[in-house]
Amino acid sequence: MLKKIARMALYVTIATPLLIPSLANAEQSPSLTEINVTPIATSTTAFDLSHSSISRDSLLIPLNINTASKLELTALSGIGERKALRIIEWRKRHGAFKTTAELAKVNGIGKATLTRLTGSITVTKQ
Fold it and tell me: How far apart are alpha carbons 81 and 45 in whole angstroms?
C-alpha cells in the first residue's frame, strides 16, 4: 500500500506542473526563464528512478508484454527505448507472444536479457 502511495505522489509531482499553464492566461503566465526553471537530463526510462525511493523492482510486475506500452516496457531491466520499439513492432508483425521465451526472437534481446526478465514479464491473451 505504501508503494502505491509513493507512486501516486511521484505521478502528482510530475503531472501537476503540466496542468497549471493550461489554466492560466498565456499572457499572464511567466516563461520558464522568468521562474528560473532549468531542464533536467532526460532518460530512456518511463521515469528516472535512480534517485528515488522507488526502485525498478517495485514496479507492478509481472508486466504483460502483449499489452505493455513503450513506456511500460522501458521500465523493465535491460529494455531501453529501442528494444521497447522492437518488441512493439514484433507484436504488430507476428501477433501476440505465446510464451515469454518467444521474446528472444526480437532482434537485440538475447538469452541473458530474457533470463534477467524472468519473473518480471508474463504473456496473456489480449
Answer: 7
Report whether 43 contacts 75 (CB < 8 A). no
Helices first, then strands: H and E counts in the chain: 4, 2
CA distance 48 to 34: 26
**Are the beta carbons of 123 and 105 closer than 8 angstroms?**
no
Residue 70's nearest CA partner among 94, 105, 44 is 44
80 vs 84: CA distance, rounded Å:
6
pLDDT, tens digit (0-9, with 9 covering 90-100), for 48-104: 444 443 444 445 578 999 999 999 999 998 999 999 999 999 999 999 999 999 999
> What per-residue confidence (pLDDT) applies to 38?
59
Tell me, yes or no, if the pTM score tops 0.90: no
For residues 49 and 11, what is the distance between their CA atoms, to the nearest angstrom?
A: 12
In the chain the domains, ranked by start, together with CATH numbers, are 56-122 (1.10.150.320)
